[in-house]
Amino acid sequence: MRWTKWMMRSSRMAMGAGLLIAANGAAAQLATDPQTPTAPAATEAPTEDIIVTGSRIRRDPLDQPSPVITVDENAIARTGLSSVADILQRLPASSGGLNSKFNSSGNFGNPPDGGGVGAGSAVLDLRYLGPKRTLVLVDGLRFVNGASASGIPATVDLNSIPSSMIERIEVLQSGASTQYGSDAIAGVVNIITKQNQKGFKGSAQYGQYLGDNDGKTQDYQLSYGFGSQGVHVVAGGYYTKQESVSAADRDISQFPNPGQTSCAEPIGGCSSFTPFGRFLVNGQNITLRGPVASGRPVYDPTLATGDFKAFTAADRFNFAPLNYFLTPVERFGGFVNTRAEFSEALNLRVKAVYNRRNSQNQAAFLPLGIGPDVGNGNMLDTLSVDATNPFNPFGVTLVPGQNYTGIFRRLVEAGQRTYSQQVDTMSLTGTLDGKFQMFGHNWYWDASAVIGYNDAKQLFTGNINAARLARAIGPISQCTGECVPFNFFGGVGSITPAMLGYIGFDERDRSRQKLNDYTANISGELFDLPGGPVGIAVGYEHRYQFGSFTPDPIIQAGLGADIPAQAASGKFNVDEVYGEIRLPLLRDIPGIASLELNGAVRHSNYSTFGGNTTLSGGALWKPVSDLLLRAQYAESLRAPSIGELFGAQSRFDASIDDPCTSAAGGLFQSNPTVRANCVANGVPASGSYAEPSGQLPVLTGGNSELRPETARTLLFGGVYSPSWARGGTLSALSLEVNYHDIKVDDSIASIPAQVLLSRCAQTGDALSCAAVRRAPSGIVTAINGLLLNTGGIRTKGIDATLTVRSGETGAGRFGLYVSGNYLLKYSERTPATDGFVTTDYVGTERGSPDQTYPHFKGLGTIDWSVGPVTASVTGRYIDNVDEIAAENALKSRLYGDVQLQFRPAWLDSKLALTFGVNNVFDKDPPACFSCSLNNFDPTTYDIPGRFGYLRLSYGL
């Protein structure tokens, strides 16, 4: 039944691409062919075996032991996108990852994954297993991990790799730890750089969202290759600038919840930190009637007169339109690739890479709060407001936990918070390689050294020094010299520049990552079997990695008003040896055109946890020359990263719902079991705790006792590429189907905060309830999100790809590419008091952290070329999902992209003018209540609006 649904969805997606052609072809409108992954050409046999991603043994690329999708330089250029991550995240096997649609900067804190915020960076997540379980290589070698001065990530930032140096990208969709080591659980992204280019290539592109005139993007790329007498050099550079899209300029993000029009609505979501202030004083919950710009407000305990009134939901602050929908990013960099061929036995390759990223995130005005109910987790929770403070209207000293529990103020006078990142990435690679004869066969050797460095700095404008604030609201006799008394109580306009100048500071954070990687490999053929020569590869790798995060000294002292953080650093080294073998058993007999077995083993010895050995094995069988069947078993390893092991404690403000609230959406009043469990967890039995949904603090941090993750992958598949379709009416026809089953044990994660809250409230699970800390008022002050080996992950799915290309016809050449992924299973197993609890996520939207798990995702492209004109149209389909934390369905989406290109023959077809529109039908993303920001899931859906672009290119 599921397979039938998959085929029906594939047909709808292909028909959608066809309908787009029909709708736009007559009007000669523009088409795009985004990221059409290509397979090696089937029309000619390769002249020489090569290294393919997924194996260290040279082989015919048409007989790949594992499924690999290739995205070449032309396919990248045809997307109209300026980020490689944006292109790869559209693949059906991809489940998203960080990109410039994330505005989750330091105001959200450090998420509970051990990697920091990653603001401005971009990563790829395969199989929904998380970016840290997808290994990124450059020319088959490791690349330094990225950082954004807010933690120590375990992933490569794809925005740190100059796009001008990319020749193609190979995406291996299978576990490959035996070949490449740690992290290759979900798959491998291998970025192949330009090494053989001759002459000049360049492009200039401008794009923007057409109806809104924002998100303006400039992209300039150039590269040049030359050489003689055995020396070849390819060098290039690029510059990309993407301007922002404001949440205020999109309908979906006007309020914290979809469809919301007022903070007074029962759904909540708006903030307690308001420009007029919220004061939990003398058992009252009050705010100002209006601003008192000068002097001291008048407090009447009865609230019948004076400047104060009861605080209501309508007084809350709408922060939503003050965020970015698309963050601004500026990137530039360059590369040099040099190859010197001394002889067949000795070659030297040197590659140097530099990249700069300037990016920014933006948040609403700083929420400044003091008192235990605020839950800062630092000195601010303990501050008193002295009776002698000239602005204190209550006539007595306000002591936390005695006569007040919280004061909340939105510092609109200080302007919006901005988090600006400057990230430099450098990499130098040297390789010696050669070829020699042994046992009557060719043998190949190589030795490489990679030195990588990532240095990130972040400037946060608008933070507050808690020690200075304590002095400014303390006894007036102690506020002398440069000290300026601070006014918490006067509302908008009452905080003067002099006050801000005393208590405010610019926060400066920094993070660094280093990589030293040394490898040596030898491969060749031993002897012949009936099916061909036996191939082997053996090698050694030594890797050293270092990472550090250094917050501003004021933050380390616990004196900031934003997210608390401590310095962290760590390092590890690993020595690894591996061996791989290929056994071609039979060939060219009835029923067996070819039959091959293969296997690999890798042993790793880590300084952090010791030794580990992984194994893999597989079989390739061609019953006839046109049909390849494969089966593979692979064990994988992921060592705990530096951030996961050594990350200091911090906080993450997650968008989750508390079942214990008496506000709308809570279960305290309607469910006796929930009420009893919540009271046992510290919620007042009176039901006075009535905070609406919003952000709750999650305590995050590393764990030096973590064990490595292990995984097992089963893969079965086949490729049908008939010889009768290679010439004549068709020039190529290929159908590939693969089934995967991945099981991860000892997965490193925190138990999701929403799971802990819900499990405590609904079942009274002691382990979950112990992780939730509350103030006497019932407000959640912390949820334990520290990392541990939680349990496991299990995912199963089917990938299918169809490629059809016509020969030359009177109407030109035509092509069809359809790729889809059907998710059969994705579940996570987390510990509870009694054993483990398994949660199935297929067909759902997880919410914070944002992630959809649609049953089906598909991509279909039809292209047409005749003479100097090329046109293409692409449909991208995402199945419907249901939110876990809200009764809301995110309906399916079919996006359409179109593109038209003209190459004048009188310029030898080297010059091209391209125009395209992405999201041509202006589809909005489905609304999401539990997603972190802007009411949509940025891992899966496009920003609202049509994006048009124009490009002039040469040599591409």
Structure characterization notes:
- There is one protein chain.
- This protein is mostly beta strands and 956 residues long.
- The protein is built from eleven helices and 42 strands.
- The protein has a 22-stranded antiparallel beta barrel. It has a five-stranded mixed sheet with strand order 1-4-5-2-3.
- A hairpin with a 5-residue loop joins strand 38 (881-883) and strand 39.
- Helix 9 crosses helix 10.
Tertiary shape: elongated
Oligomer: single chain
What's the mean pLDDT score?
89
Q: Determine the number of helices (DSSP H or I, runs of at least 4 residues).
A: 11
Number of strands: 42
Helix content: under 10%
**pLDDT under 50 segments (min length 5)?**
1-47
Radius of gyration: 30 Å
Beta-strand portion reads over 45%
Measured distance between first and last alpha carbons: 45 Å
The biggest beta sheet reads: 22 strands, antiparallel, barrel
